Amino acid sequence: MTVAKTIEITATSAKGFDDAIRAGLKQAGKSLENITSAWVQDQEVIVKKGAITGYQVRLKVTFVLKD
Fold it and tell me: What is the model's pTM?
């Protein structure tokens, strides 16, 4: 029997949404094992003085629990 858990994380990048996703999963992988999937729940840009300064994603990350 396999049991999985889903958590929510937020990641930010100055480069773009793709970079934010990759950075978030890389960081999550440092403390979580057996990550099987990630779902981008939402995306937003950070704006300062009319210019985009960051890209933020909220991810639902699923990983399999150890026996």
Answer: 0.90
Tell me which H or E stretch contains 17. helix 17-31
Q: What is the 3-state secondary structure (H, E, C) of 18-45?
A: HHHHHHHHHHHHHHCCCEEEEEEEEEEE
Q: Nearest-CA neighbor of 56 among 22, 10, 25?
A: 10
What does each C-alpha distance from 10 to 1, 2, 53 come to in angstroms? Answer: 30, 26, 16
Nearest to 5 by CA among 37, 29, 27: 37
pLDDT of 67 reads 80
What's the confidence (pLDDT) of residue 24? 98
